[in-house]
Design goal:
Length: 412
């Protein structure tokens, strides 16, 4: 019976996969590729993951090749494919700052780029390995550094539109996220990206609204791009309260064992969520990420019973902050102290999902090598100090010698 069930499941999965491919092919039959290649504008915030579907292709093409070109007509073109159209990549192994060639995957002819960086802005083209292009995108990845933050609870407001004769610059906001906590006071975020309206946009770039495109788009004329770069993305934050969803009761076996141990006089310590134990050396920086969370998700952090609200712990609120939350929803602890010990809880989309129990220990002594970064820094610092001291010594003695020569020549 188990073997029969496994065979039936495999057959059903194969049928569903075939249905998905057939449905995708039906879309391609209905969608006619344009005679003149156009570029759809798409804007994202740095560290986000975006997907670009190949909306049209000839029926005889079974595999697509994605190309990346920074500037239209440039000589440098990157090929984003394994020439099979089915590259699979584990997004959990993606790190910030890696090249786009190591941060993409292709699924059902669609290109997925993980943790996009500002350098990923440019033109993405869907085509074949022979150089035939079917569809194109103009992607604008806007930086998350120096982002403008408005806390609505204390009376702050988002920026007003900037309008002159030739163009208008404004912020287009996404929908509010869900409340990042439940049962207690939480916070909501609303991300806004820079957009520009002008009648001078390049006609080859297609936009959702006429004469409106993102500020970093190649459709913006060169003389207007400087004004667009000055306008930074915005984030609006406000308080919220949401009820917690009803949770399922624990399994009967686990509850029975817990009751027996409790009756014997010892109540077991059961974490509310999956908790990881971690030991970190004293004085080193630590960055904690919430499992399965992306920058566009609603994420919150707690230390034991203390709520780490963004109104106090968001990066940029205070320049001397040692513990802060960045715009990618990571929790940073600089120069870890013994007082940082405790359990850090992570909320994702209004649910408590994970915990990290942090222990702080003295750093074990280790031998330094000449190629160690700290050794190189120490050698440079000592060398610069000796050079400065030597320069001051030579300068003082040169001045004394000159003074003596002048005095001696005056007597003569």
């Amino acid at each position: 019976m188990e073997l029969l069930r496994a065979v039936l499941l495999l057959c059903m999965a194969d049928v569903l996969h075939s249905f998905a491919i057939e449905e995708k092919e039906d879309i391609f039959r209905r969608m006619v590729c344009p005679a003149f290649l156009m570029f759809d504008n798409a804007a994202y915030l740095a560290d986000m993951t975006f997907e670009l579907p190949c909306n049209c292709k000839p029926e005889e093409v079974s595999n697509v090749v994605w190309y990346f070109q920074k500037n239209m007509g440039g000589r440098e073109t990157a090929v984003l494919t394994d020439f099979s159209g089915n590259m699979v990549l584990d997004s959990s192994h993606i790190h910030v700052g890696t090249d786009v060639l190591n941060r993409f995957t292709i699924r059902m002819f669609s290109l997925i780029v993980f943790r996009a960086q500002v350098s990923d802005s440019g033109h993405y083209l869907c085509g074949t390995k022979n150089g035939d292009f079917f569809y194109g995108y103009d992607v604008d990845v806007q930086p998350s550094k120096h982002i403008t933050v408005a806390f609505l609870d204390i009376g702050q407001h988002v920026r007003d539109d900037y309008t002159v004769k030739a163009f208008s610059v404004f912020t287009t906001f996404w929908d509010w996220t869900v409340c990042d906590r439940c049962g207690v006071r939480g916070e909501q975020r609303r991300i806004g990206l820079c957009y520009m309206q002008s009648a001078r946009l390049h006609p080859r770039y297609r936009t959702a609204l006429p004469n409106v495109t993102s500020c970093g788009s190649s459709a913006v004329p060169a003389r207007l791009q400087r004004s667009g770069r000055r306008w930074k993305p915005e984030v609006a934050i406000r308080s919220c309260v949401a009820p917690c969803p009803q949770e399922d009761n624990p399994q009967e076996g686990v509850q029975a064992i817990s009751n027996v141990i409790h009756k014997l006089g010892r109540k077991p310590w059961l974490p509310r969520v999956p908790t990881q134990f971690y030991k970190h050396p004293l004085g080193r920086d630590l960055v904690i990420a919430c499992p399965g969370a992306r920058p566009e998700h609603a994420v919150a952090w707690d230390k034991d019973s203390v709520r780490l609200y963004r109104s106090r712990y968001l990066v940029g609120v205070n320049r001397t902050m040692r513990v802060f939350i960045d715009h990618g929803n990571h929790l940073h602890i600089r120069r870890v102290r013994f007082s940082d010990r405790g359990t850090y809880f992570c909320w994702r989309e209004g649910r408590l999902v994970a915990g990290l129990r942090l222990r702080v220990s003295y750093q074990a002594q280790r031998r330094r090598s000449l190629d160690d970064p700290e050794t190189i820094y120490a050698i440079k610092a000592i060398g610069v100090s000796y050079v400065l001291v030597g320069a001051i010594f030579v300068g003082v003695h040169s001045c004394r010698c000159c003074w003596r020569v002048l005095r001696f020549s005056g007597r003569i």
